[in-house]
Amino acid sequence: MQQAVLCVNGQYDVLDSWFSEYGIKRAMLVCGKSINRLAINRYVETLSDRLDARIVRFMEFQPNPLYENVVAGVNRFREENCDAILAIGGGSAMDVAKCIKLYSNMPGDGENGAYLKQTIQPNQLPFLAMPTTSGTGSEATRFAVIYYEGKKQSISDYSCIPGTVLMDSSVLKTLPQYQKKATMMDALCHAIESFWSVNSTEESKVYSCNAIYGVMEHMAGYLANTDKGNAGMLMAANTAGKAINITQTTAGHAMCYKITSLFGCAHGHAAILCDRILFPWMLRNIDNCIDPRGAAYLRSTLDQIGQAMGCRNAQEGSEKLEIIFDNLELEIPSASQTQFEELKTSVNPERLRNHPIALDPNAIDSLYHEILR
Length: 373
Ligand SMILES: [Fe+2]
Hints:
This protein is α/β, with parallel strands linked by helices.
C-alpha cells in the first residue's frame, strides 16, 4: 500500500478532508503532552465545531510504552466506538497507536499478554500519523516496540503502517536545537545503515539514496529553522523510515542503545557516534564481508553512500560524515573501564546479523574505544 503524504505548515484544512473522505465520526488521538505546544492542538480542540466528528484523546502511556498502556488504549477505543486512529508525537505515540490499531479487532480483553500471542488480523481502520520530530521515521515503518513484564516486545506487521502521514513543518520550529541535531542524525543513520544492510534491495537503496540526498540538501536550512529546511527534513526522515522498513538497522543501532542508557544521550546522537566510526572501520575490514553479494558489491555500495553524500567515493563519504558530526558539536562521552566492559556485552546479536561485516566481541570492544573517549 502506498502511503499518502500531506504536507502542511500549521494549516490543517486538509485534515478536515481526511475526516470527511473516510466518514470518520470518532477518532482516537494518541499523543503525548508535547501536543500542547503545537498549532495542531487548536485544530483538534475545535474539530467538533466544524465537522460531525469527535476526538477521543488517549495520552495514558509512558516513554518506552507498556503493553498495559496499549490494552488500556484498546479498551478505551472500544468503549468509545472509535472508527479511526490519529497519532501525533514521537516514537512512543506511534508505537502505542500502531499496537492499538493491530489489537483493536482481536478477540478477548488482552489479559495476561494475550494480544501478544494472538494472530494479527489486518483491519482497514483509517490511521493517520503526524510526526513531531524528523528522525525516527516510525510513521513509515511496520515496527512497534512495547514492554511486557520488563521484556521488550518487537511487533512487526505491515497493517500497522499509517495509511496517511501529515507532515507539518511548523512542529519543528520550536524543537530544541539539540533534539533537532540528534533526530536529523537518526534519520541519516537509518539511511546509511539501510544502504549497507545485508537485507537491502533495489527498492530500499533508492529510499536510502533519496533520504541521504534530502538530509544533505536540507541540513543547513533545517538547522537555521527555515520552513523549507524543516519540510525537507521531515520528508528525508520519512524516506529513511521507508528504507529501514525493508531492511531494518545494523551494527550502529545495535551498538548505540547502551550508549543512550549509560550516558543519557539522545538516540540519534548515540547512533551517529557509532556510525561515524563504523563507516571507516568497514572500509578497513571489507575482506570480512558476510553479505552474500560479496566484498566487491559491498565496496561499490559504500561508494554509492559516499556519492549520495556528494563525495567521489566511500572514503571521502566517511570523512564527510566525521566533519558533519564535528560541526554539530555533539559531545563524545567518556567511558570508565567498567562501562567499556558493560558496553561490549550489551550488543544484540540479532541486529548484528544485518551488518555486512562480521563483528566479533574483540571488534566490538575496540570500536567502543574509538566511539567513546
Ligand atoms: Fe534510530
